[in-house]
Amino acid sequence: MGIDAPLADRVFETGVAMMEGLSIYLGDRLGWYRELAAVGRLTPAELAERTHTQERYAREWCEQQAAAGFLTVDDGGVSGGGGAGPRFGLDAEGVAVFTDVRSTDLLAPFVRLVAASAVQLPALVEAYRHGGGVSWDQLGDDAREGQADMNRPWFEQVLPGELAGVPHLHEALGRPGAAVADVGCGYGWSTVALARAYPQARVVGIDVDGPSVERARTIAAERGVENVELVHSAGEDVEGGPYDVVFLFECLHDMPRPVEVLTAVRRSLSDGGFVVVMDEAADDALTTPADLVQRALYGFSTLCCLPDSLSHPGSAGTGTVMRRPVLERYAHEAGFKDVTDLPIEDFGFWRFSELR
According to the model, what pLDDT value does residue 159 have? Predict the structure, then answer.
Protein backbone atom coordinates (compact mmCIF):
# COMPACT_ATOMS: atom_id res chain seq x y z
CA MET A 1 0.00 0.00 0.00
CA GLY A 2 1.01 3.62 -0.26
CA ILE A 3 3.34 5.41 2.10
CA ASP A 4 1.60 6.78 5.18
CA ALA A 5 -1.75 5.25 4.21
CA PRO A 6 -2.79 3.43 7.41
CA LEU A 7 -6.44 3.07 6.41
CA ALA A 8 -5.50 1.55 3.06
CA ASP A 9 -3.11 -0.80 4.85
CA ARG A 10 -5.84 -1.82 7.26
CA VAL A 11 -8.42 -2.47 4.52
CA PHE A 12 -5.88 -4.56 2.62
CA GLU A 13 -5.15 -6.56 5.77
CA THR A 14 -8.89 -6.97 6.29
CA GLY A 15 -9.30 -8.41 2.80
CA VAL A 16 -6.43 -10.85 3.41
CA ALA A 17 -7.99 -11.82 6.75
CA MET A 18 -11.32 -12.47 5.03
CA MET A 19 -9.63 -14.83 2.55
CA GLU A 20 -7.76 -16.58 5.38
CA GLY A 21 -11.03 -16.95 7.26
CA LEU A 22 -12.69 -18.63 4.30
CA SER A 23 -9.69 -20.95 4.02
CA ILE A 24 -10.24 -21.90 7.66
CA TYR A 25 -13.80 -22.78 6.70
CA LEU A 26 -12.50 -25.12 3.99
CA GLY A 27 -10.13 -26.89 6.37
CA ASP A 28 -12.87 -27.23 8.96
CA ARG A 29 -15.54 -28.58 6.61
CA LEU A 30 -13.19 -30.89 4.70
CA GLY A 31 -11.91 -32.46 7.93
CA TRP A 32 -8.32 -31.48 7.24
CA TYR A 33 -7.70 -29.90 10.65
CA ARG A 34 -9.22 -32.86 12.43
CA GLU A 35 -7.08 -35.32 10.48
CA LEU A 36 -3.90 -33.40 11.22
CA ALA A 37 -4.86 -33.22 14.91
CA ALA A 38 -5.52 -36.96 15.04
CA VAL A 39 -2.56 -38.22 13.03
CA GLY A 40 0.16 -35.58 13.22
CA ARG A 41 2.30 -34.25 10.39
CA LEU A 42 1.24 -35.26 6.89
CA THR A 43 2.21 -34.42 3.35
CA PRO A 44 -0.59 -32.90 1.27
CA ALA A 45 -0.83 -36.17 -0.68
CA GLU A 46 -1.26 -38.14 2.54
CA LEU A 47 -3.81 -35.65 3.84
CA ALA A 48 -5.82 -35.83 0.63
CA GLU A 49 -5.73 -39.62 0.55
CA ARG A 50 -6.84 -39.97 4.17
CA THR A 51 -9.73 -37.50 3.77
CA HIS A 52 -10.79 -38.55 0.23
CA THR A 53 -10.10 -35.09 -1.17
CA GLN A 54 -7.99 -33.69 -4.00
CA GLU A 55 -4.20 -33.56 -3.57
CA ARG A 56 -3.62 -30.42 -5.64
CA TYR A 57 -6.08 -28.44 -3.53
CA ALA A 58 -4.69 -29.97 -0.33
CA ARG A 59 -1.20 -28.85 -1.31
CA GLU A 60 -2.24 -25.27 -2.01
CA TRP A 61 -4.26 -25.13 1.19
CA CYS A 62 -1.44 -26.51 3.34
CA GLU A 63 1.02 -23.99 1.93
CA GLN A 64 -1.46 -21.14 2.39
CA GLN A 65 -2.14 -22.22 5.98
CA ALA A 66 1.57 -22.38 6.71
CA ALA A 67 2.09 -18.96 5.12
CA ALA A 68 -0.69 -17.61 7.35
CA GLY A 69 0.98 -19.14 10.41
CA PHE A 70 -1.85 -21.60 11.14
CA LEU A 71 0.03 -24.80 10.28
CA THR A 72 3.57 -25.80 11.14
CA VAL A 73 5.82 -27.21 8.43
CA ASP A 74 9.07 -29.12 8.40
CA ASP A 75 11.97 -28.84 5.88
CA GLY A 76 11.71 -25.08 6.14
CA GLY A 77 8.45 -25.15 4.19
CA VAL A 78 10.23 -25.61 0.85
CA SER A 79 7.92 -27.46 -1.52
CA GLY A 80 9.02 -29.17 -4.69
CA GLY A 81 12.21 -30.57 -3.20
CA GLY A 82 13.37 -34.13 -3.02
CA GLY A 83 11.53 -36.95 -1.33
CA ALA A 84 7.89 -36.80 -0.39
CA GLY A 85 8.01 -33.06 0.23
CA PRO A 86 7.29 -31.07 3.37
CA ARG A 87 4.92 -32.28 6.06
CA PHE A 88 2.37 -30.01 7.66
CA GLY A 89 0.87 -30.20 11.11
CA LEU A 90 -0.86 -28.45 14.01
CA ASP A 91 0.83 -27.41 17.23
CA ALA A 92 -1.01 -27.71 20.55
CA GLU A 93 -2.57 -24.27 20.23
CA GLY A 94 -3.74 -25.05 16.70
CA VAL A 95 -5.42 -28.24 17.91
CA ALA A 96 -7.30 -26.24 20.56
CA VAL A 97 -8.35 -23.44 18.19
CA PHE A 98 -9.35 -25.56 15.20
CA THR A 99 -10.53 -28.94 16.53
CA ASP A 100 -10.91 -29.37 20.31
CA VAL A 101 -14.64 -29.27 21.17
CA ARG A 102 -13.72 -29.08 24.88
CA SER A 103 -11.52 -26.01 24.54
CA THR A 104 -12.83 -22.51 25.17
CA ASP A 105 -10.24 -21.42 22.58
CA LEU A 106 -12.14 -23.31 19.83
CA LEU A 107 -12.78 -20.76 17.06
CA ALA A 108 -13.30 -22.71 13.84
CA PRO A 109 -17.08 -22.60 14.53
CA PHE A 110 -16.86 -18.80 14.74
CA VAL A 111 -15.56 -18.75 11.18
CA ARG A 112 -18.33 -21.19 10.17
CA LEU A 113 -20.93 -18.74 11.47
CA VAL A 114 -19.33 -15.85 9.58
CA ALA A 115 -19.25 -17.96 6.40
CA ALA A 116 -22.99 -18.61 6.72
CA SER A 117 -23.56 -14.87 6.48
CA ALA A 118 -21.11 -14.52 3.59
CA VAL A 119 -23.16 -16.99 1.55
CA GLN A 120 -26.19 -14.75 2.09
CA LEU A 121 -24.53 -11.46 1.06
CA PRO A 122 -26.85 -10.93 -1.95
CA ALA A 123 -29.88 -11.41 0.31
CA LEU A 124 -28.34 -9.07 2.89
CA VAL A 125 -27.85 -6.38 0.25
CA GLU A 126 -31.53 -6.68 -0.69
CA ALA A 127 -32.62 -6.49 2.95
CA TYR A 128 -30.43 -3.47 3.65
CA ARG A 129 -31.79 -1.76 0.54
CA HIS A 130 -35.49 -2.65 0.67
CA GLY A 131 -36.16 -3.84 4.22
CA GLY A 132 -36.94 -7.24 5.68
CA GLY A 133 -34.15 -9.54 6.73
CA VAL A 134 -32.33 -12.85 6.39
CA SER A 135 -33.75 -15.52 8.69
CA TRP A 136 -31.91 -18.06 10.80
CA ASP A 137 -33.41 -20.73 8.56
CA GLN A 138 -31.85 -19.05 5.50
CA LEU A 139 -28.47 -18.93 7.23
CA GLY A 140 -28.79 -22.69 7.66
CA ASP A 141 -26.73 -25.35 9.38
CA ASP A 142 -23.45 -23.44 9.19
CA ALA A 143 -25.00 -20.81 11.44
CA ARG A 144 -26.79 -23.28 13.71
CA GLU A 145 -23.74 -25.48 14.14
CA GLY A 146 -21.33 -22.57 14.28
CA GLN A 147 -23.10 -20.91 17.18
CA ALA A 148 -23.73 -24.19 19.00
CA ASP A 149 -20.17 -25.47 18.66
CA MET A 150 -18.69 -22.11 19.64
CA ASN A 151 -20.73 -21.98 22.85
CA ARG A 152 -20.52 -25.67 23.73
CA PRO A 153 -17.19 -25.68 25.62
CA TRP A 154 -18.27 -22.69 27.68
CA PHE A 155 -21.47 -24.44 28.72
CA GLU A 156 -19.85 -27.83 29.30
CA GLN A 157 -16.58 -26.79 30.90
CA VAL A 158 -17.19 -23.43 32.56
CA LEU A 159 -20.88 -22.84 33.28
CA PRO A 160 -21.40 -25.37 36.12
CA GLY A 161 -18.55 -23.94 38.16
CA GLU A 162 -19.68 -20.37 37.61
CA LEU A 163 -23.24 -21.17 38.70
CA ALA A 164 -21.92 -22.93 41.80
CA GLY A 165 -20.12 -19.69 42.68
CA VAL A 166 -23.40 -17.75 42.99
CA PRO A 167 -24.84 -19.07 46.28
CA HIS A 168 -28.52 -18.18 45.89
CA LEU A 169 -28.57 -19.42 42.28
CA HIS A 170 -26.76 -22.64 43.15
CA GLU A 171 -29.18 -23.23 46.02
CA ALA A 172 -32.26 -22.69 43.83
CA LEU A 173 -30.96 -25.02 41.12
CA GLY A 174 -29.85 -27.69 43.57
CA ARG A 175 -33.16 -27.94 45.39
CA PRO A 176 -34.75 -31.38 44.86
CA GLY A 177 -37.51 -31.07 42.28
CA ALA A 178 -36.41 -27.61 41.12
CA ALA A 179 -38.07 -26.63 37.84
CA VAL A 180 -35.72 -24.93 35.38
CA ALA A 181 -36.38 -23.61 31.87
CA ASP A 182 -33.80 -22.82 29.20
CA VAL A 183 -35.58 -20.54 26.72
CA GLY A 184 -33.86 -20.26 23.34
CA CYS A 185 -31.83 -23.40 23.99
CA GLY A 186 -30.65 -24.00 20.41
CA TYR A 187 -28.76 -27.31 20.21
CA GLY A 188 -29.29 -27.76 23.94
CA TRP A 189 -25.69 -27.71 25.17
CA SER A 190 -26.73 -25.27 27.93
CA THR A 191 -29.77 -27.41 28.78
CA VAL A 192 -27.70 -30.58 29.05
CA ALA A 193 -25.04 -28.78 31.11
CA LEU A 194 -27.69 -27.57 33.58
CA ALA A 195 -29.26 -31.02 33.83
CA ARG A 196 -25.95 -32.76 34.46
CA ALA A 197 -24.83 -30.20 37.02
CA TYR A 198 -28.18 -30.39 38.86
CA PRO A 199 -29.51 -33.96 38.47
CA GLN A 200 -32.35 -33.43 40.96
CA ALA A 201 -33.79 -30.62 38.85
CA ARG A 202 -36.24 -30.89 35.96
CA VAL A 203 -34.82 -28.92 33.02
CA VAL A 204 -36.96 -27.91 30.03
CA GLY A 205 -35.25 -26.55 26.91
CA ILE A 206 -37.42 -24.46 24.58
CA ASP A 207 -36.57 -23.17 21.11
CA VAL A 208 -38.47 -21.84 18.11
CA ASP A 209 -36.15 -23.51 15.56
CA GLY A 210 -37.32 -27.06 14.82
CA PRO A 211 -34.02 -28.47 13.46
CA SER A 212 -32.18 -27.15 16.53
CA VAL A 213 -34.66 -28.84 18.89
CA GLU A 214 -34.30 -32.15 17.06
CA ARG A 215 -30.53 -31.92 17.33
CA ALA A 216 -30.83 -31.02 21.02
CA ARG A 217 -32.93 -34.13 21.63
CA THR A 218 -30.28 -36.27 19.96
CA ILE A 219 -27.48 -34.69 22.00
CA ALA A 220 -29.36 -35.23 25.28
CA ALA A 221 -30.12 -38.86 24.38
CA GLU A 222 -26.52 -39.58 23.35
CA ARG A 223 -25.35 -38.35 26.73
CA GLY A 224 -27.95 -40.30 28.67
CA VAL A 225 -29.43 -37.22 30.33
CA GLU A 226 -32.88 -38.15 31.61
CA ASN A 227 -33.99 -35.06 33.55
CA VAL A 228 -34.37 -33.03 30.34
CA GLU A 229 -37.29 -32.23 28.08
CA LEU A 230 -36.82 -30.39 24.76
CA VAL A 231 -39.80 -28.45 23.44
CA HIS A 232 -40.34 -26.86 20.01
CA SER A 233 -42.14 -23.63 20.82
CA ALA A 234 -41.85 -19.87 20.45
CA GLY A 235 -40.54 -17.95 23.45
CA GLU A 236 -43.83 -16.10 23.81
CA ASP A 237 -45.36 -19.39 25.00
CA VAL A 238 -43.33 -20.77 27.91
CA GLU A 239 -44.76 -24.20 28.64
CA GLY A 240 -44.31 -26.52 31.60
CA GLY A 241 -44.16 -24.02 34.47
CA PRO A 242 -44.15 -22.78 37.08
CA TYR A 243 -40.37 -22.48 37.04
CA ASP A 244 -37.99 -21.64 39.86
CA VAL A 245 -35.30 -20.37 37.48
CA VAL A 246 -35.53 -19.46 33.80
CA PHE A 247 -32.39 -18.96 31.71
CA LEU A 248 -32.06 -17.14 28.40
CA PHE A 249 -28.58 -17.86 27.07
CA GLU A 250 -27.42 -15.52 24.28
CA CYS A 251 -30.81 -15.32 22.60
CA LEU A 252 -32.84 -12.37 23.90
CA HIS A 253 -31.19 -9.91 21.48
CA ASP A 254 -32.18 -12.17 18.57
CA MET A 255 -35.85 -12.34 19.50
CA PRO A 256 -38.17 -10.16 17.41
CA ARG A 257 -40.49 -9.57 20.40
CA PRO A 258 -38.24 -9.54 23.49
CA VAL A 259 -40.75 -7.80 25.77
CA GLU A 260 -43.45 -10.35 24.96
CA VAL A 261 -40.99 -13.17 25.63
CA LEU A 262 -39.92 -11.70 28.97
CA THR A 263 -43.56 -11.16 29.89
CA ALA A 264 -44.32 -14.83 29.19
CA VAL A 265 -41.22 -15.84 31.15
CA ARG A 266 -42.30 -13.71 34.13
CA ARG A 267 -45.74 -15.31 34.12
CA SER A 268 -44.16 -18.77 34.08
CA LEU A 269 -42.23 -18.18 37.32
CA SER A 270 -43.07 -19.73 40.66
CA ASP A 271 -43.36 -17.52 43.74
CA GLY A 272 -39.83 -16.30 44.40
CA GLY A 273 -38.63 -17.48 40.99
CA PHE A 274 -36.21 -15.40 38.94
CA VAL A 275 -34.65 -15.09 35.50
CA VAL A 276 -31.01 -15.17 34.36
CA VAL A 277 -30.17 -13.54 31.02
CA MET A 278 -26.76 -14.28 29.53
CA ASP A 279 -26.14 -11.96 26.61
CA GLU A 280 -23.23 -10.20 24.98
CA ALA A 281 -21.35 -7.79 27.23
CA ALA A 282 -21.98 -4.74 25.07
CA ASP A 283 -20.58 -1.45 26.32
CA ASP A 284 -23.12 0.93 27.82
CA ALA A 285 -22.43 3.46 25.06
CA LEU A 286 -20.80 3.57 21.64
CA THR A 287 -17.03 4.02 21.79
CA THR A 288 -14.99 4.87 18.69
CA PRO A 289 -12.71 3.32 17.85
CA ALA A 290 -13.97 0.31 19.79
CA ASP A 291 -12.01 -2.64 21.10
CA LEU A 292 -11.95 -5.99 19.30
CA VAL A 293 -14.83 -7.49 21.30
CA GLN A 294 -17.19 -4.58 20.57
CA ARG A 295 -16.20 -4.69 16.91
CA ALA A 296 -17.00 -8.42 16.87
CA LEU A 297 -20.43 -7.76 18.38
CA TYR A 298 -21.19 -5.22 15.66
CA GLY A 299 -19.97 -7.72 13.08
CA PHE A 300 -22.39 -10.36 14.36
CA SER A 301 -25.16 -7.80 14.46
CA THR A 302 -24.78 -6.40 10.95
CA LEU A 303 -24.35 -9.81 9.27
CA CYS A 304 -26.47 -12.20 11.31
CA CYS A 305 -28.44 -11.21 14.39
CA LEU A 306 -30.14 -8.01 13.23
CA PRO A 307 -31.08 -9.40 9.79
CA ASP A 308 -32.51 -12.53 11.44
CA SER A 309 -34.56 -10.44 13.87
CA LEU A 310 -35.81 -8.10 11.13
CA SER A 311 -36.92 -11.06 9.00
CA HIS A 312 -39.98 -11.17 11.31
CA PRO A 313 -42.69 -8.50 10.80
CA GLY A 314 -43.03 -6.10 13.71
CA SER A 315 -39.62 -6.97 15.14
CA ALA A 316 -38.04 -4.81 17.82
CA GLY A 317 -34.80 -5.07 15.83
CA THR A 318 -32.54 -5.21 18.86
CA GLY A 319 -29.33 -6.52 17.30
CA THR A 320 -26.38 -8.08 19.06
CA VAL A 321 -25.30 -4.85 20.74
CA MET A 322 -27.98 -4.92 23.46
CA ARG A 323 -26.70 -2.41 26.01
CA ARG A 324 -27.67 -2.49 29.70
CA PRO A 325 -30.25 0.31 29.39
CA VAL A 326 -32.00 -1.60 26.60
CA LEU A 327 -32.18 -4.80 28.65
CA GLU A 328 -33.44 -2.83 31.64
CA ARG A 329 -36.14 -1.19 29.53
CA TYR A 330 -37.29 -4.52 28.13
CA ALA A 331 -37.36 -6.04 31.62
CA HIS A 332 -39.32 -3.16 33.16
CA GLU A 333 -41.84 -3.18 30.30
CA ALA A 334 -42.31 -6.92 30.92
CA GLY A 335 -43.08 -6.32 34.59
CA PHE A 336 -39.74 -6.98 36.26
CA LYS A 337 -38.63 -4.53 38.93
CA ASP A 338 -34.94 -5.35 39.45
CA VAL A 339 -32.15 -6.01 36.97
CA THR A 340 -28.71 -6.71 38.46
CA ASP A 341 -25.45 -8.11 37.18
CA LEU A 342 -24.43 -11.48 38.58
CA PRO A 343 -20.84 -11.94 39.79
CA ILE A 344 -19.88 -14.16 36.83
CA GLU A 345 -16.80 -12.78 35.09
CA ASP A 346 -14.33 -14.01 32.49
CA PHE A 347 -17.07 -16.00 30.75
CA GLY A 348 -16.26 -15.29 27.14
CA PHE A 349 -17.69 -11.96 25.98
CA TRP A 350 -20.97 -12.48 27.84
CA ARG A 351 -22.62 -10.80 30.82
CA PHE A 352 -25.07 -12.46 33.24
CA SER A 353 -28.02 -10.41 34.49
CA GLU A 354 -30.66 -11.41 37.02
CA LEU A 355 -34.27 -10.26 36.64
CA ARG A 356 -36.72 -10.29 39.56
Answer: 97
Give the total number of structural domains in the chain.
2
Average pLDDT over residues 62-73: 98
Whether the model pTM is above 0.90? yes
234-275: pLDDT as tens digits: 777 898 899 999 999 999 999 999 999 999 999 999 999 999
257 three-class SS: coil
Output the pLDDT for position 156: 97
Task: Return the CATH number at 346.
Answer: 3.40.50.150
Q: In this structure, is residue 108 part of a structural domain? A: no
Instruction: Give the integer Cα–Cα distance in Å for 83 and 46.
Output: 13
CATH number of the CATH domain containing 84: 1.10.10.10
Terminal CA-CA length for the chain: 55
| Dihedral sign (CA 319, 324, 330, 334) | positive
Q: Tell me the pLDDT tens digit for each residue of 143-199.
A: 999 999 999 999 999 999 999 999 999 999 999 999 999 999 999 999 999 999 999
Rounded-to-integer distance, Cα 85 and Cα 87, Å: 7
Q: Quick one: CA dihedral 349, 185, 213, 256, positive or negative? A: negative
Evaluate whether residue 239 is within a structural domain: yes
The answer to whether residue 321 sits within a structural domain is: yes
Residues 6+ apart with CB under 8 A from 107: 97, 98, 150
Helices (H), the chain: 6-29, 32-39, 44-51, 55-68, 92-98, 108-119, 121-130, 136-153, 159-164, 167-174, 189-197, 210-222, 258-267, 292-300, 306-310, 324-333
**Same-domain check for residues 119 and 89:** no
Is 335 part of any domain? yes
User: What confidence tens digit (pLDDT) does each residue in 265-324 have?
Assistant: 999 999 999 999 999 999 999 999 999 999 999 999 999 999 999 999 999 999 999 999
With beta carbons less than 8 A apart as the criterion, state whether 97 and 105 touch. Answer: yes
For residue 231, the enclosing domain spans: 115-355
